[in-house]
Amino acid sequence: MNRRTFLTTGVAATAAFASISPATSKETDKEVRIVGVSCSPREGKTTATAVKAALDAAKTVDPRIKTQLLDLGGLDISGWVGGAKPTDAEMPEDDFDLMVLPKLKDPVPDGLIIGSPSYFRTMSALCKAFLERIAVLRSPKLLLADKPVGVLAVGAYRNGGQELVIEQIQTAMLCHEVMIVGGKPKAHQGATLWNNYNDDITKDEFGMDSARKLGIRIAEAALRLAQK
After folding, report:
1. Which is it for strands 191-194 and 179-180: parallel, antiparallel or unpaired?
2. Tell me: the pLDDT tens digits for 45-97?
3. CA pair distance 8, 31, nearest whole angstrom
4. Residue 90: its pLDDT value, please?
5. Domain definitions of the chain by residue range
6. Using CA atoms, how far apart are residues 77 and 129, in angstroms rounded to an integer?
7. How many degrees, rounded to 5, is the angle at CA 180 between CA 175 and CA 182?
8. C-beta separation of 201 from 49 below 8 A
9. Residues β-bridged to residue 70
């Protein structure tokens, strides 16, 4: 290859690279959406605050991260009627169909953080209803498959069943073939918070730290998966 050929080839290659750069940049800047769901019947209280803390931490990871909080407190969401379809008379529309499902389906989030209080060492009835109702995201296609999902729980005691609640929610979400994501030390399983300060969960420094670390891990996982 002589000097003239080299220079001509180099200019052409540079022009070709420049022509694809905008598309590559556009793809890199794609928004990554993480939704947090607070499954406490008490709207705006400790569970919602903890989920929001996780979402706020997720946003610090990368400017592409966009978050949304779904606070189910005060909503009318019934459990699944065995075998019924959402269009059946047995399964009339409620707040899940009208206010929750559209935010999980159009578009499907790139990551989920689910929070529940611990009631008698199990998830809330509202959380159970939510998990039953998102069965519609499994058919005809697993819409949440391979999406990163993290879980947090709030209890009245430091050891108030939070890890049991986390495990219960994770087990249900595995039916969607999601990627279960834990937190960082010292909350590998998920975030555990203690409501020992008259509903001011922000005073639980250990718990809030675990919530923030969970949010960061979900954001990191969602970004990696979005780039594939």
Report:
1. unpaired
2. 999 999 999 999 999 999 999 999 999 999 999 998 876 665 555 667 899 99
3. 38
4. 63
5. 1-30, 31-226
6. 7
7. 150
8. yes
9. 37
123-147 core/surface letters (b: 16 or more CB in 10 A; e: else):
bbebbbbbbbbbebbeeeeebbeeb
User: What mean pLDDT value characterizes the chain?
Assistant: 88
Preceding amide of 92 cis, omega within 30: no
DSSP state letters, 172-217: HHGGGT-EE---STT-SS-EEEE--STT-GGG-HHHHHHHHHHHHH
Crossing angle (nearest 10°) for helices 46-59 and 205-226: 50
Alpha carbons 73 and 39: distance in angstroms, whole number: 7
State which amino acid sits at residue 24.
T
Q: What is the CATH number of domain 31-226?
A: 3.40.50.360
What's this model's pTM, rounded to 2 decimal places?
0.85
- Both structure tokens of 78: 């019934």
CA distance 54 to 114: 10
Q: Write the CB contacts of 220 (distance below 8 Å, at least 6 apart in sequence).
A: 61
218 and 113 Cβ atoms separated by less than 8 Å? yes
Among residues 214, 219, 185, the alpha carbon closest in space to that of 54 is found at 214
Q: At what angle do helices 125-133 and 162-173 cross, to 10 degrees?
A: 10
DSSP letter, residue 99? I
